[in-house]
Design a protein that fits this description.
globular; five-stranded mixed sheet; 2 domains; 46% helix; D-Maltodextrin-Binding Protein, domain 2; 312 residues; alpha/beta
Length: 312
């Protein structure tokens, strides 16, 4: 796989303190216990969980840039208040890690990307709880963006250029552009000179604005939010392609969740726009309201995955 060299260096540097911490904490006289990724993630999360009987909520995908993070915290606290239980916020950078925690049933609810929902629904019965409605719609797009002064005008003209994906499991940030390449008999390795994974739509937008890469695939909701509240970044980029619409990032629950808790959570989400406090939180997130979702809205994502798997 082609990866930009400077990103490799940054990743190695960032891992050093983590590796050292693990080495220091290890007892050389004991044989390490072999555990699965899911078990390891649960153990790590439990170390961060001093509260008793908390509502465990993860945010694996945001519909706002990181600067809108404060509104997510307010939303989680609002949910905790309505349930009468403390809230524990579980954050992971990788979508796969959130799905792993949902698979074990460790999490009570999570905000995730559309493709991880499709994957989790198929793999272990992940359940749709609600979906956000934005500007009257429950869909979003993948934007292919380039620097504003780039001569590139079409996606095909990015051949031989550098490109930024977000998370490997992202719909708009990875699956959609990969499917675009699939349709012209190309892959990221054959098409791009080099590419990176930023793990964040914010970072991909910044990478294009600062000309670190020649192009990127980003979530339309994140780009639109920036364009409204912080156009300093988006004015340095230009959209050259807007994908077809896809089912918006859902709020999900694990298959084994207590039905009573599930119903309470759904009611809280569906009613949040009805009081002033909740409405103000949603306004900061550019969300009209939460509505009941339909699993069929994600069939177009399933279709892309199925077509690419047939050719393997």
């Amino acid at each position: 796989m082609k990866v930009l060299k400077h990103l490799r260096i940054l990743i190695i540097i960032s891992l050093v303190p983590i590796l050292m911490a693990h080495l220091i904490s290890c007892n050389p006289r004991q044989e390490p216990k072999k555990i699965t990724l899911e078990e390891a993630l649960v153990l790590e999360a439990e170390e961060e969980l001093p509260e008793k009987n908390p509502v465990r909520i993860a945010i694996g995908s945001m519909i706002t840039p990181r600067e809108g993070y404060a509104y997510y915290k307010q939303l989680l606290n609002y949910i905790g208040e309505k349930l009468g239980r403390p809230v524990k916020f579980i954050e992971r950078e990788k979508y796969a890690e959130i799905n792993a925690l949902l698979k074990t049933g460790y999490l009570d609810v999570a905000f995730i990307c559309s493709k991880p929902y499709v994957d989790g629904h198929k793999e272990f019965g992940l359940k749709l709880l609600v979906i956000p409605q934005i500007n009257g719609k429950t869909e979003y797009y993948s934007y292919i963006i380039v620097p504003v002064d780039s001569p590139v005008k079409t996606f095909e003209e990015l051949q031989g250029k550098t490109f930024a994906f977000t998370d490997p499991d992202s719909n708009t940030g990875k699956l959609v552009p990969t499917y675009m390449l699939f349709k012209i008999n190309e892959t990221p390795d054959s098409f791009f000179k080099e590419y990176i994974f930023t793990n964040d739509h914010d970072k991909s937008i910044k990478a294009v604005a600062r000309k670190i890469v020649d192009g990127a695939a980003v979530d339309s909701l994140i780009w639109d939010y920036y364009n409204k509240f912080n156009p300093e970044l988006t004015t340095k980029t230009r959209i050259i392609l807007k994908s077809p619409p896809y089912g918006i990032q859902p709020v999900v629950v694990p298959p084994g969740i207590d039905p009573e808790i599930k119903n309470k959570l759904r009611k809280i989400f569906l009613d949040i726009h009805k009081d002033e406090k909740g409405k103000k939180i949603l306004e900061g997130m550019m969300i009209d309201r939460f509505v009941a979702g339909d699993d069929a809205s994600y069939n177009s994502i399933r279709g892309m995955i199925a077509l690419m798997e047939q050719r393997k």
